[in-house]
Write a structure and sequence with these properties.
The chain is of the alpha+beta class and 147 residues long. Helix content is 35%, strand content 21%. It has helices spanning 2-13, 15-23, 47-60, 107-115, 121-127; strands at 27-34, 37-44, 67-73, 97-100, 143-146.
Length: 147
């Protein structure tokens, strides 16, 4: 019964972290006591969401000595983008996906991820001419159409 009491105490202590996991659209996989610590295992939809969850962990207890947090990224958890699909030619046609630019991304890197070839970056640039004036200038948070 001591484990159950410890679990409740630690869940209470880290309740704001559990709330942050939910607010960030992450999927909570496990919450239990392991090796005398609270284990929280979750999948976040993005690096940004993962960082926000870690910020909350550190704000509760900067040492988090009584917590083991295993937070991975699963981009399939990201909500489907709800951008209007009427801008630009062909954007509304089937087979087009959207991608939200992350810090450190380049069009070449995104092309490699989606097509397997960095040289296909111009396909993405051409499909996003309404938003981009230069293939070398993309910003984190921009939503790009992946044709």
């Amino acid at each position: 019964m001591a484990n159950e009491q410890q679990l409740q105490q630690l869940k209470q202590k880290y309740q704001s972290v559990l709330n942050a996991i939910q607010q960030q659209g992450a999927s909570l996989k496990n919450v239990h006591i392991e090796n005398g610590k609270l284990l929280i295992r979750a999948e976040a939809p993005s690096q940004d969401a993962k960082n926000r969850i870690w910020d909350e962990i550190k704000s509760v207890d900067s040492t988090y000595s009584d917590l083991t947090a295993d937070i991975t990224i699963n981009e399939s958890l990201a909500p489907q983008q709800q951008a209007p699909r009427t801008m630009g030619a062909g954007v509304g046609s089937s087979g087009h996906r959207t991608y939200t630019v992350k810090s450190g991304d380049t069009l070449s890197k995104i092309a490699k991820q989606h097509y397997g070839d960095t040289g296909d970056y111009m396909k993405i640039f051409e499909a996003n001419r309404d938003k981009l004036s230069d293939p070398n200038k993309i910003q984190p948070g921009q939503e790009l159409v992946i044709p």
